[in-house]
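Good morning C.,

I know you're traveling, so I'll keep this short. The sequence:
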Amino acid sequence: MFLEIITPDKKVYSGEVESVKLPGAEGSFGILKNHAPIIATLKKGIVKITDSKKVVENFEINGGVVEVLNNKIIILAEA
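The tokens, ready to paste straight into the viewer:
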């Protein structure tokens, strides 16, 4: 899967990932390969990314929106 995290100032992350855990407005949820298409709002919290080499990175956001479509994830985040 390909992930991009974009803030109003810059692109924070861009690359291939294995999984993403997000702080959804209705509760946290994860995204794996071949996830169904979704658009969801995000609350303040941590975005946990596991890349294709099993390296885990965390990004703190103050809310935003995520779109998942055809194994591409775009997070528009308030940093």
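Safe travels,
E.
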